[in-house]
User: Fold these one by one.
Assistant:
Number 1:
Amino acid sequence: MRQAQYDNGEDFDHPGLLLRHYEKEQRHRFRCRHCRNNFGSDIRLRQHYTEANSVRHYCPSRNKDYASRSELLNHYTASSSHHCCIKCDEHFGSEEELLTHVKNNSNHFYCQKCDTDFYSEYIRQTHWELSDGHYICISCN
């Protein structure tokens, strides 16, 4: 059986025991759970998190980091508890607020008839031209 080992040679029979050791021992209170460095004080640990935040892909409601931006975005779109506009990187309190944002924002190319947001104006216009029942003057929009 492989043992987890602490820097000073203290062995643990299971990684879970090592994690409990980290949580219980005062000297490990200011250890970053991501890079595992010890920062000695709460202020320095918070500063580390602030500096590292620009490269973190963190969901505050789940208190979870994701390996990449695309994994975080996949989480946002798959979760019914998140009302996130991926295009604008904005979060909303409800699905209704998100839909209002999409319908009224000039960064979105929304078709009201189909209730669909398109990636670009060109794709929306192509949709209008090729779809049955879309009698829209593209020049007037």
Number 2:
Amino acid sequence: MKVLIVLLFMLLTAVVVVFAIYNTATVPITVWYTSFPAVELWVVVVVSIIVGVVFALTIGLVEGTATRIENRRLRRTLRKLETENNYLRTQPSSARHRTESPLPAPLAPMTAPAIVEPASAPVYGSGDEDEDDDVYSGGSAV
């Protein structure tokens, strides 16, 4: 890609040089209220090209900055969702598949309820890990 850009730049430069050699006539230019009676045509073309390149670079810089800001926001959202997903994966399967049945459950014989400890996410390390470490799976976030 860099080679293509260099080749296009060289081609544009060659076209401008050839144009400057063959177009040495002078033309009158009026910009706003300022008048320039004799400006060479190649100077007008070269200045126009430079102004166009600066304008295009400015637009590219603004759009690139906006894209980088949006990508940063999306990466943060992705990291948060991956952490939540890893946490939910550590939950027991019975907690993940609870659904309300439309029919009442049949009555079971009375027995003492089993004591079930609530599920908690495992936390590894001493707390001073890198912020990219995923505390729920013990590994690095993907």
